[in-house]
Each structure stands twice: as structure tokens, then as C-alpha cells.
Amino acid sequence: MPVGGVVDEIKDRLSIVDVISPYVALKKAGRNFKGLCPFHGEKTPSFVVYPDKGNYHCFGCDSNGDLFTFIMKTQNLAFGDALKLLADKAGVALPERRADVVEDRRRERLREINAAAAQFFHHVLMRSEAAEVARSYLAKRGINGDTVEAFQLGYAPDSWQSLGQYLSGKAFESKELLDAGLVVQKEGGDHYDRFRGRLMFPIRDIRGNVTGFGARALDSSQPKYLNSPQTPIFDKSSSLYGIDRAARAMREADSAVIVEGYVDVLHSHQCGMTKVVASLGTALTERQVATLKKLTKHLILALDPDKAGDEATLRGLDVAREVFDKRVVPVPTWRGLIHYEYKLDADIRIITLPRGKDPDEVIREDPARWQWLLDRALPIVDYYFSTVTSALDLTSAKDKSSAVDQLLPVIKELPDKVEQAHYLQKLAHLVQVNERTLAESLARVRLKGPALPSLSTRNREGPGTPHPGEGGAQASGGAVSKQEGARQRPPLSLEAYYLSLVLSNPELADTVYQIELNEVQDSRVCLVFSALRDAVGSAEPFDLDRFAETLDPALQDFVGDLLDRARQGPSVVDAELQRQAEKCLRELRRRNLRERIRQLEYLSHQAANESDLEGSRQFIEQIEQLRSELEPFEHGDTRASVWR
Question: What is the largest CA-CA distance in the chain?
């Protein structure tokens, strides 16, 4: 059975209410259920579960999805892992590919080895006389016993064979220890422990599995820090220390703090600031930011206040600006026409630490000051202004030009025109250049991103009827024999059809930026669209085969099924592709606006029945706003562009 059929069978067997109930106290409200949202802090329930539709929506944080999305978010699981968990709960057998089974078992074995090693190191730290030097170091750094236990800190004995012998006694083979990076092979074939005489920091993935280790030397006879090498389950460039303990807090606070060192994380969590992780080095990487952007769009960087830290902060800001999505927004020109620009869909801020003090030192001296610094983190533009201009001589024409070249793109990314004007005035004052001249230069700045839609390809038709999907009629054309295979399968949803259109026609790949991911109801479609955005926005030319290889195996099957359907369906000539894509997007927007209005009308009625007149009034205001957005779509107004 293809993965699409398995997903549908799981949804048929499981009630979304039963899946969500263990995590959220749900109360029946008419045909639906309400509760406090698990993804952000709230006192009044705004999290609604719709049993008939098999999905949920939070009107507080706009989180929505199906039972797969819910399990992935609450349990920090990839789609394939959520599929396995829910298939087991539903009693549905998953099709297995031998290669996947072998690789899954190998990776699971490595996780077991690392867990055993972490337990060994922790036991040595807590019980061994030889670990007194490590216990003294932790006490000196102000790390208490509860934190040591919570993060399972450990000590690697200053011995060549201690860990290897312990793990061999646990029936782990030498080859497995090598694969895990815990031992090193000598020329003669013997092995010795990689970590010796070091304080050990287990590094975990977002689900809490130990994937590798960071190790600190406690004397000057060896390099200060040593990390696990790259393994099938550990990649330093994609790991974040403390992410397993910070993910929930990041979602609830809708912000994340990134520091540089292990001890910075320990002290932050110890003082109650649990939305903090470390980047395992100095500069943020694309894969680390990609992990964080699934949890929040609000990042605060708090790297060490030295030259290396300043350089790392700038590199991290550049990476974050590249990885975070950019919204496409319409901007009126002086001629009354419309053009489209990218705006950064994230809030990135930077803490200015006292010179000579790391975050852990600030926290140890005064935890309240750490919170004070977080609350006053500089917006990205202010930090760029401070850092860029401090290194330049602004009396020099060359340096003035350099400042303008570096700062205008950052100003351009701001979504608010008033903010843009504010910083343009500030830049004009700093470089002593006429503001109008800078405004003209700003208008010429083009931010990186996929090709924007041209006016010539927009608004050629009204909403029209949906394309194949949602049980609608199949598009005309093509031989009947091409569609015989597709008839044996349930019709695609509109969003899945649109995805199949994009996947089978790479020239439409840029259009993935026009769909709002929070309006996509199918978790599989949403995940593939999200991955497509990352792939299309990268520097590499988009390649479908290479893209498919990056997906979870279960999603690879789903994509394969969509492509198979596209091949069996009617052919579409190139001239029609753009119009088909726009019609799909228009219908999706219309459908989702209608659904939001229906949901808000229900909530408004409920609030009125409960004498919550203020709540009802707020819902009505939202309804009126959505109705004004919906009206052009309902009446075929060509101004109702789906491109944004």
C-alpha cells in the first residue's frame, strides 16, 4: 500500500480528539472541542479541534494542522517517526523497505551506544574519586546538582580503555563503537577511548536522543574542547546544545536565545530561562537556523563579546536572514502601479553583553540582569548600524559608500515603511548624504529570492473552478487510458494537486512562495512545500531528484505518488501552467478565507452565549476584515491577486 493510502487509513481509524486529548484538556463545544493551546501560553481557550474535518486550529497563535502535524509538533518528531507512532496506535502495518529497516536499526543502535556512554560518564562524575577535579570545576562555575542531573553531565576517566571495556561488556561491538565516534582505531587495529580526562556534555537531538558529545579539558595539556566526529546520527553543524529541553519553552515564549557555550546554556536553564541553546561553536549555520525557525520566528543572539564573537554574530545574522522566509508584499509605485518585494518574515535581535563578560558570568552575578538584557536586545538593523559604522571612517567618501552598500539591503528587508523611513533618516544623518539620494538608491536595491511574478502573467482570469482535486471534475483533455490508474485512488485535495503541478513542472517551483503554509491542511503537503521553499531559495539550481533524496522516506513515497498521478493525468501545455497555478492558489485562498470566517462566526456565537461581549466583538471585527478580503475572490474581481 502506498504511503498516501496508509495515511488515509490511519486517519480513518483514529479520532483526532483521541489523539490530542492526552496532551490537551478538551471540552466539548457544540460539534467541536476547545482547550488551552499547547503551542503558546494562554488563559482563555482558543485551541479548537474539528472532529468532522480531522484538524485543529488555534486562534491565538494561528497554529493548525491534522493529527500528524499535532504529534510532530508536540513530540518533536519527523514525519516518518510520527507516521510510525500513529500507525502503531491505529494498528496499521507500514510497508517496509529492507534498506530503510537496516539503516534505521543501525541508527537506533548508535543512539543506544551513546545513551550507554552518557550513563557511564555520568556515573563516573557522580561516584568516582578520579572525577573530583570535574566536580570542583562545576562547583567553581556555579553549576548545581539539579542541573548536573538534568543535563546528565559526566566525566571521562583519564584512561585509554575505560569506556571501551564498559561498552564491550554491554555487548556492543568494536565496529559500532568506531561508528559512534567513541573510540579511535590505532594502526595495529586496537582501539582507545576518544575522550579522556574531560568533562562531558551529552548533545541531544530535539527528541532527547544522545547523538554525540562535547568534551572540555580540565587542564592545559590538551585542546580545550573536543567534539564527537561526524557520524550517521551526529552533525555538529546541525546540532544545538540544549534543544531537547528548550524546544517547548521556545514555542510557548515564541522566541529563542542562542549562546555560544555549554555553560551559558546550563546557567540560563538553572536560573529559569529555558528557551536558550548553544550553537556548538561561534557562528550559526543554515541547518541550525532551519531547526529554530520551525519553533519560532523570533531569535536573539547572545554570543561572546569579543572580536570572534562579533564576527560570528554578523555571520549568524547573514545566515538567519538567508534561511528565514521572505514574504512577498505588494508595493505601490509613484505611477500607481504595483510591484512586489521581499520582506524578512522574522524578528532577529542581538544582546549587547558587557565587554569581557560571557552570558554565564552575567547570570551568575545577577540573573535579573540577564533577563533585562534579553528584554532590551537590539533589533537587527540597530546592530548592523552600530557594528558596520564603528569600523568605518564616515568622513571618507569611500567608507560612506561602503556603509550605504552594507546597510541599505538591511533597511530594505524591513516590512514596515515607517521603520524604513526612520532608518533611512538615521543613515542619511550618519553619512551626511541627502535623504532623497539614499531613497533613490534604496528603491534600486533588490533582495535575494526566487523570481517574483511579473505583471504580464498575473490576473488573466477570475477565480474560475478548481483544478483536479477535492473531488472536482478532472481537467479536460488527454486520453482516457492515461487516467485509468488514477481512478483507482481517491481524488487529490486541491493543495495536493497544486503540489503535484509544481513537482512535475519545475518551472513553477518559484510559486511555492505564494502559498501560506499555515493554511495548508494536509501535513504531508505542508512539509513538502516547506522543504521546497528551502530548496528553491538555496544558491543551487533546483533539481527534483536531489530534492526528493533530502526528504523523509515516507514523504519520498508521497511525492512519488503525486508524480505518478501527474504522469497519468492529462498533459498541460506550457502556456497554461501559470494560469493553472494561479487558479489553484486563488481557490485555496478563497476556501481558507471561507473556513476562517465560518470558524470565527461559531466562536463569536459561543462568546455571546457565554456573555463574553468583548470577545464576541473582537471575533466580529476579525470576521469583517476577512469578509473584505474574501469579497474580490467571490465575485471574480481581477484585483484579487493570489500573488503576495
Answer: 81
